[in-house]
Amino acid sequence: MLGNEAFARGAYEAGVKVVSSYPGTPSTEVTEVLAGYDGVHTEWAPNEKCGVEVAIGASVGGVRSLSTMKHVGLNVAADPFFTAAYTGVTGGAVILVADDNGCHSSQNEQDSRYYGKSAGVPVLEPSDAAECKDYIKKAYDLSEEYDTIVLIRSNTRVSHSRGVVTLGERVEKERIPYVKDIQKHVAMPAMARKLHVAQENRMNKIAEDCNEMDFNRVEMNDTSIGIITSGICYQYVKEALPDASILKMGMTNPIPKKLIEDFAGKVEKLYVIEEGDPFFEEQIRAMGISLAGGKDLFTIQGEYSANMIREAFGLPVPPSAIIEDAPGRPPLLCAGCPHRGLFHVLSKLKKTVMGDIGCYTLAALPPTSAIDSCLCMGASITMAHGFEKATGDSKDVVAVLGDSTFFHSGITGLVNMYYNGSKGTVIILDNRITGMTGHQHNPASGKNAMGQEAPAIDIKTLCEAIGIKHVVEVDPLDIKAVEKAVKEETGRDELSVIITKRPCVLIVKQTEPPYTIGQDCKNCKQCMKIGCPAIEEKDGKPVIVPDRCVGCGLCANVCAFDVIKGCRKEA
Questions:
Q1: Which of 133, 141, 327, 481 is most buried as measured by Cβ atoms within 10 A of its Cβ?
Q2: How far, in Å, CA of 313 to CA of 236, rounded?
């Protein structure tokens, strides 16, 4: 199984009843897999804050619950997460977060262990697929035994690597009857002060007990070198330093201080090897334990590897199988992507574009080079508003974000623009799906996480309900209509919204034949400016590669000489 599949299986076997998440690589598959299990209510929430709140509500209702997200999603969920650390649980509650060391699909790197330490909740960190399944099952027992939410930290390699997993049977848990208890569940200041004391006592108890928990284990070998490590780094250490003694920490918060002191006393030189920040290292040094090496040998940036560890310890590094001079393969918007037409127009009109998180962020790259900023989910709208207030210019700046991102955290930004007198333009790319993370449904797609029919929220109606008078829908492959809409809406002296509507090319079956460029091509290369991967230059002239073309017709729309022929689809 993939690590994420194993997490899902473990939660299912543990009797989880309610799952609410927002998709985010590398965590997405956990919820997708759970949606296929009977007896589990699984849903995509509009954002991670909603997901965690649903999970905590289910816990208060007496059942085991789960919410999953990527590391930046935990920022969004931090508000309920920190307070739930005070109030504790009824049914077991697990928050699963997958860090993205190396920024494979993220705008930053974070070390989620700090969230556990700051909030005061236990953090578990598996190192392979088998542990993914086992740890999440144990997390529910831990949650209920100590009356606490539990944070499980994964990362890209653990979530997306495969391993052998032994399956078990689902154990149905009886719902714990709800008992009204305002001292526990109502986090008003008077109650919160008491809950904070209870939470601190709880963590002190876990800190003492974790020295004996089987999450943490010592593997004594050659005592000349001792390594303290966790998660995927444990696998790298085992490969690079097979003879070293290892303290593998599966519970990474709180750290097992007595176990660490005992291990340190048995080895000649002690090292800490951990991806991310010096989380263990700083605490171990603060204990007065001398380390022979830690972050001085490595880095806080990116991923580690067995070869990196070998090199740090002066060991020979096997030759790499990577072809150093292999041609680059930059990410591209797909052939036929409905977003491409809009960004071609925005680039042509030289608009300043506040972008957002999604496939469309790739429009920042040549040849369109049409996005000026990308900060975080939903920030396109609020940044465009701030830019307008700073410059006084609402005509040349636009906000661009996808449908799922709009529901995630764009709605409040649009309300803010309307309330605070913005005259700008927001462009919502409605491709009927959450594209970047693998085509998960969202509140506008008409289906829920389990594939069942669900109400589809109409984005145009929602924008109008806020009070916005000018809301225009347009097909993004109709270049003339898009250009007309952008010119008209950005020219207004009041807030407006453009909605581009066409489904993602990967969820619609393509049946049209490919387009072709005629022999009478004038070689103006305007078609190449749209950046379609189906168009390449051969013998100095553009050609369409038939196997890549999906027949969207965008190239024909931008051709001024009508030499590109084919059959164009309608939305």
A1: 133
A2: 13
